[in-house]
Each structure stands twice: as C-alpha cells, then as structure tokens.
Prior knowledge:
By secondary structure, this protein is mainly α. Strands 1-2 form a two-stranded antiparallel sheet. It has one domain: Amino acid/polyamine transporter I (Up-down Bundle).
Amino acid sequence: MAVQAKSGLLKGMNPTVTVVTVVVMLVSVILGAGWTEQSAAAISTARETLNPFLEWYYVVLVAVFFVFCLWLGVGRYKNVRLGGDTERPEFTTFSWVAMLFAAGTGVGIIFWSIAEPIMHFDSNPFAADGSPESAAVAMRLTFFHWGLPGWAIFGLVGLVLAYFSFRHSLPLTVRSALYPFLGHRIHGPIGDLVDSLAVFGTVFGIATTLGLGVQQMNTGLGQLFGLDTTLTLQLGVTAVIMFIATASVVSGVKRGVRLLSEANFWLSVVIVLFFLIFGPTHYLFALTIESTGEYLQNLLAMTFYTHANKDTGWQAEWTVFFWGWWIAWSPFVGMFIARISRGRTVREFMLGVLLMPTVITFVWIGLFGGTALHQELFGDGGVVAAVSQDVSVAIFHTIEGMQLGLLGQAAGVLVTVLIATYLITSANAGTLVINTLLANGDTDPPTGHRILWGVVLALLTAVLLVAGGLETLQAAVILAGLPFSLVMVAMLLGLVKALEQERYAPRPGARTLAPTEPWVGMDQAGDTLHEPRGTAGAAGEYQPSARTGAEG
C-alpha cells in the first residue's frame, strides 16, 4: 500500500513525494529569487544544449502518441468504459467540453491566437515574409501547434489515469499506470519518483502559463487604465489571481472549478461573436475553412517535420516549445480530464478530447488570427510591428485596429476579464491536481495543502517573471517536459499491456469481478482472489477484471 501520513501537517498525504516536491520547489524559488541572472542563464544554456536532440525526439514522440490515440478511438477497445459497465458520465457533455477547453488551453490560446499567426506571417521558413502565401502558412502552422497531436498528448495521459483508476480502482495517480509492470512495487520508491516527476512538470507548466497570462493582463490593464508595464504590477496581479484560485479550489470541482469553467465558456462565446460580427466576417469564414483544409492535407508532413535541412532555429523556437509545453501540462490536464470523465467509453473520451477542443480552437484562432492578418494584408497594418516589440499586446492592438471606439474598449475589458478567469481556472485545476497526486489519488485532499500549493505556484510564477520574461518561461517549460516524456512512454506501454490482458482475461468456469472492484490475482484453481484497494494480487501478479466491453 502507498504510504500516507496519519497525523500532523502531512496528514492524508504521501510524505515522501510531498516533502521532496515541496523542498525542490522552494529551492527553485530561492535560487531564482536570489540568483536571478545566473538562474536564467543556466536555464537558457540547458535548453540550447538539448535543442538538437529535442528537435527530433519530441517530433517522434508526439507522432507516436497521436497515432496511438487515433487507434484507441476507433479500435477494438473503443467500447471499454472508464468505470463500471453500466456506469454513466458524471458531468453533462456541455460541462465536460467546457472544462476540457478551459483547463486544456485557456490562457495560452488567448496569448497565442493572434501572436503566433502574426509572428509566422512576419517570418517563417516556408514562404516569403509578409506575403499572402505566408499568411496561409502562418494559419496552418498555428493550427498544427494547437491541433490534434497536442490534444493527443493530453488524451493519452487522461485516458490512462481514468482507465486504471475508475475501471480497476487503483489510485488516481500517475504511478498506477505502471501496475502492469511493477505490481505492488508502484507503492514504493519508483512510484514516488514517477509521481514527483508528474508534480514537477505540472508546477512548471502551470507557472509558465500563469506568467504568460499575467504579462498579457498587465498589457490589458495598461490599455484600459493607462498603467505601465512593470514587474511590480505583474507580481501584484499574480498574487490576486492565485488568491482567488486557491479560494476556488478549496470549494472543489463540482462548485468552484465547474462554475468558473462554464463562465469562461460563455465569456469566450461573447468575444468570439464580437470578432465574427465586427471583424471581416466573410474573410474570416473563408480563411478558417481554407486553413482547416490545408491543415488536414499537410497534417502527416507537419507531424514528422524536423527542420533537418534548415538551420534557422525555427523548430526549436516553435514546435519544440509547444510540444514541451503540452507534455509539461499533460499530468495536470490529463489528471483533470480523467477526474471529469468517469463513466465515458474509450471512444467517447478519445474522440471527444481530440475533436471537440480542436474544433473550438480552430474557430478561435481563425477569427482572432484572421482579423489580425486581414489588417496586415488589406488594412492599415501595425500588428506585426506591435508584436515585434511586445508579444502580449497582440490581441489588444488588433481590437484597437478594428476602430470601433467605445465598443472596442468594452471588448478590451471583456478580454482582460477573460484572461483573469482563464488564469484562475488553470491555477485552481492545477492546484487540485497537484494535491491529488500528493495524496495518493485522493480527489478530496486536505484544505491546508491546497492552500500551500497555491502559495508555491504563486511564488514560482513570480520567480520566473523576475528571472527574464518570455524566453525564460519557454525554456523552463521545455526542460520540465523532458523527464515526464519518459514516464508517458511507460504509461502507453502499461495501458497496452492492461488492455491486452483484460481482453483475454475471461476463462470458462472462472468467477468474474466487476470492473470497478480492485485488481485481483488468481488462485491455482483459476478462481478470483480479492485484494485490498491499491495492492497487488497473488505474488504481485497483474490480473485485470474479467468483464471488458472490448471487442474481440
């Protein structure tokens, strides 16, 4: 059994994982605050050293994850249910999709939906800079970095966690995915290491996104109230956001997190309609449809593109960064998706996670990025110049370029509020996930630890902001994703082994076990041996439930 503290400050938590992760995070905060320049230089050097390796490693890894997730969605295991065979989803489809999108992309899509197309339009290795062809390429590349392969990363982690937890009653932690290989040893040092790596990736992934969002909120406040872009203001915004997020996560998923996610969804609908109605409507429809077609036509080539014959640094600056970001976020988003997906089949889960957020994201980028590109190609321009000076001004400068007066100012207010709500949603969901990992899968961890990790996230975000802005944030998240990528490979292999053994588990005359009961072993007569929750079967042997729902 996994060790949990029975009393004191660590009551209900895994003491080893909790102490190790808290100490490492606090050391990171101290080093970053006390030796800012040295920390930034060390992070930058590490990234530059690893770039040649990551330019092909992340490409191969993400391609494998993508193909595997497509197979799960349509293959022989598509009818396996994440829970009991008669169990039904805990949340409605609307709430589920709203939480998927809010937790999975959130602030990132607001930050990059205009900035990335504009930066690719200004410079990319596939078309002449600033040309109509470059605009088409810019949209295709942005769709690629926010599309199906990225969501496959989240989907893989989420499905593995949901499968082992809800179908076989193992703890809702990353270590459970290794049960087919390690048996009861997942509750020892190896399991502690795996969960610690998941926490590290989650913390740095969330801190990076919070840093980007806080910078953009600073810009929005400057546009609205004439405030300067200062580190002091950014630190103040971080403190306020994390205070609200921590208060929200204390209230739990069904209240604070769900309500905020649904509020985000409706605010997003309003701002999307604003761009659609008051932007170049016909152009936006045409560009989004055309870009989607080009994305699908070039998806295979883009998925395996490694930039091997060009030495411009584009691959490291863009694809490596985004794949590292998706991987670093995957423990957090995967855990959160798993938490809200009980009762769904593998097909519902995988196709929903891959398709629904991707469609919403494409519409978002098409309308936001398309409006900015239209201003550059057919209007007064200025977005490229503004973004080259400060990436965070992209959306506000685009709204200003629409020349709508008070209506444009109102839209700027709405965008700033939307950034704040997405920041809060990402932070509170991330805090809940971190505590779930530290509490050996308990989805209702102690309140004190929720508050503690809210404070730790706020401090780390502040340190990354102080240490050097966007480049340091990007480098940190790329490095944080690397160790967890190895864990993801093990999770994939563990899921394959579990599904295969579940497929062939039934035997004539053997008693079956309901899918939501604990893992079991078999005695010499072939009968089921019940074991306590979270323990191995006889001799540590892995034996899954006899009833599968899988197709032969």
